[in-house]
Amino acid sequence: MTTDTDLQSARRTIDKEVEALRMMEDELNGNLTQALDLMQSTKGRVIVTGMGKSGHVGSKIAATLASTGTPAFFVHPGEASHGDLGMVTENDVVLAISNSGETKELSDIITYCKRYGIPLIAITKNPNSTLGRTGDILLKLPDDGEACPLGLAPTSSTTATMVLGDILAVCLLERKGFSKMDFKQRHPGGKLGSFLQKVSDLMHKGDEMPLVYDTASMQEALLMMTSKMLGCVGIIDKDRHLQGIITDGDLRRCLSPDMLTKKAADIMTHNPKTITPDILAVEAVKEMNEKKITQLFVIDDNRPVGIIHLHDCLKAGVA
């Protein structure tokens, strides 16, 4: 086989799967809104189920829903027939996936839904199948074959199912006004967790802040700056409003034999760049990079409540 042959095969696969998504896009209708209404209003959880490749995709859909504000989990249809049906309550909504709509392993969970009046959303390409006919709401998959040249391996169908799951999750996210901070609560670990940390999570506060009053001498300012080891000292007035800042760079620029005879207010840079505690730490990093500085005082009503250093952000994995 040659590289050209492989690339041709890859492009055919992409074209076929994109074609399936376009077909699904054209077939979207009011059933989507009905399904979303049902999922949003449920007092319980969204129970996702499916067999084989549909099951693998279903697990991902359940995880995406749960992480974006819609409580959900996956129930394997085989395990459901051996006791896990007890996980499904009358307050839940079931989202059942089967490309053909005739997956026999789904029969018990379908029967259970009908017996107890549990709403059933069917995802299938065949409206006339068992699943298509018994579902309370049908979300139709494109019936355009598979990207697999044998027409057997689930390829286009699983891609379409995955995208349909993303559609449901994103629509529900937008309906609920789900925010970055809500997302952070569900992703405390890993890169996403670090990316969504706020300035207030990383800032130095209280006695860790290098602060002196505007009446302080440069000697006092230098001692404070050295003891806190953050490369700067903030200058505040009697009401604790931030008046200015002295950084390592300011010291180098103002170095002179009489520097220590001056007051901190004589050396400080007025109106320093600041940030608020509710801002994402990644935005603080962006601000520091753009201004070519390494620290920002965190203020509330122009009073310092903390200070954040570029090194703190990098150490926490925020970049």
Throw out a few tags for this protein.
319 residues, alpha/beta, Rossmann fold, CBS-domain, 2 domains, 5-stranded parallel β-sheet, 4-stranded mixed β-sheet, 46% helix
Describe the protein:
The protein is α/β, with parallel strands linked by helices. It has two domains: 3-178, Rossmann fold; 199-315, CBS-domain (Roll), CATH 3.10.580. It has 15 helices and twelve strands. It has helices at residues 3-27, 30-41, 53-67, 77-80, 107-116, 130-134, 156-176, 180-186, 190-195, 199-202, 218-228, 248-254, 264-267, 281-291, 310-315; strands at residues 46-50, 72-74, 93-97, 120-124, 137-140, 211-213, 232-236, 242-247, 269-270, 274-275, 295-300, 303-309. The strands form three sheets. Strands 2-1-3-4-5 form a five-stranded parallel sheet, sandwiched between helices. α3 (53-67) links the parallel β1 (46-50) and β2 (72-74). The longest helix has 25 residues, at 3-27. The chain is elongated and about 90 Å long. The model has no long low-confidence stretch (mean pLDDT 91).
Give a brief rundown of this model.
This protein is of the alpha/beta class and 319 residues long. The chain has helices at 3-27, 30-41, 53-67, 77-80, 107-116, 130-134, 156-176, 180-186, 190-195, 199-202, 218-228, 248-254, 264-267, 281-291, 310-315; strands at residues 46-50, 72-74, 93-97, 120-124, 137-140, 211-213, 232-236, 242-247, 269-270, 274-275, 295-300, 303-309.
